[in-house]
Amino acid sequence: MKKVLHTFMMTLAVCLPTTKADGQLASNPDKFLGNITTSYNIDYTGGGFKTKFYELWNQITPENETKWDQVEGQRRGSFNWSNVDKIYKYAKQHNFPMKFHTLIWGSQYPNWMNNLSTEEQYKAIVEWMDAAKKRCPDLQMIDVVNEAIAGHAPAPYKAALGGNGKTGYDWIIKAFEMAHERWPDAILIYNDYNTFQWNTDQFIKLVQTVRDAGAPIDAYGCQSHDLTDCNLSTFKNSMKKIQDALKMPMYITEYDIDEADDNKQLKRYKEQIPVMWEADYCAGITLWGYIHGKTWVKNSGIIKNGKDRPAMTWLREYMQSDAAKTAKSPFPGMVKEASVYIKSSPASNEAEVPITVDARLKTKEIDHVDLYVNNDLFCTMTAAPYETTYTPRITGKHTVRAIVTATDGSKYERYSEFKASKATGIASVYNDETSSDVYTIQGVKFAPNTEWNSMPHGIYIKNGKKIIKK
């Protein structure tokens, strides 16, 4: 058995100090309640409003300032970082995360990209990412790719990143690989909308494909613009469905309730925010604007004419509750403690499936990696590269889970899946069901010389009798 290839890089980031300002809503040290810039301002002062951004929120996402067209839209190679610099410095000054939104998107990219060859488009993407890395070297979070579901806004220049390729999303995988090369310690996110009501299955398929290809994707982002008219049951079921399928950290990235009626807006906040916030896989919530009349939609603002709308009043109270203060997060300290990426690529003409785990800790050392296939411990690897092969006994879907244990005992997990089109469990030479030398499980027969310890757990039939292997 070979050790798992060290292609998955597990990054463990150092906890940043946190600052709790008077009036700041969230005091949970492990997850944030953030917001966006307001009309290209950080501290909004219109209408006599004097409360500073950092006095309310402990995470910031630029609404437009870090989009490609805003930085390099005028001319290729001419970058304007003035607004980005202000936000980046502000977040550093107040010790809370800034999310870069976004690197690759089919909207708000420079128009001059449309006139370039595929080769030159790729070079331009490299130049864009290199420049962003130089300007913002230690980002905590990045929306690497935004809104790539068919019918949303997949990048028209995706061919420059490999196009659909074998997976259908090769260009997205490439974008994450490029981002990871530059920001290995950042939480890399895929972000999209209509995740809870209309495009749930498409969202799951995209993220699953990217994840299972071994791409360095750390979390998924649900924008949550689609929740104004979403009933609680539908929302909770969809949220559970997504997480059950992906088993990854989640961010609520662009939450707003576009509702003029104060009571209706309040109802949605009271229904939805606790479900999101108290989910242990939710790493944080970013509201998409808070000043009424200054958001991208008409009635989502929760501060109107300088005064709290009922939803804001409730939000202040809820964030001071024990449930909000003690809610768990997949990223303690709001940073990436670890990254684990699994790649399992069964060849169409071979039964053996190579499995690699790219694992890296930033401040700790890896003691060992346990690899589970279909919930059974398959192997334990104690040194990089972490690489092995698995021979499926049956065809179809197989689940893979890697648990990385550090020398201090802390553990970090990653899930993946692969589909096996071939399996070695069935052999025509052992077709005689009455043979005392044949063990059968789920229709799969094992040769008499098959080592019992290598067989998967389950119920076997021998001489017409059940044998249970636990």
What can you tell me about this protein's structure?
The protein has helices spanning 68-72, 82-93, 118-135, 170-182, 200-212, 232-246, 262-277, 310-318, 322-326; strands spanning 32-36, 60-61, 99-105, 141-146, 187-192, 219-222, 250-255, 282-287, 303-304, 307-308, 338-344, 353-361, 366-373, 376-381, 387-390, 396-406, 411-420, 439-441, 444-446, 458-462, 465-469. By secondary structure, it is of the alpha/beta class. It starts with 31 loop residues before the first strand and ends with a strand. It has three domains: 32-334, TIM Barrel (Alpha-Beta Barrel), CATH 3.20.20; 338-420, Immunoglobulins (Immunoglobulin-like, Sandwich), CATH 2.60.40.10; 428-469, no CATH class. The strands form six sheets. An eight-stranded parallel β-sheet has the order 2-1-8-7-6-5-4-3, with helices on one face. Helix 6 (232-246) links the parallel strand 6 and strand 7. It is globular. The longest helix is centred in the first third of the chain and has 18 residues, at 118-135. It contains nine helices and 21 strands. Helix 5 runs parallel beside helix 6 and helix 7 (262-277) packs parallel to helix 8.
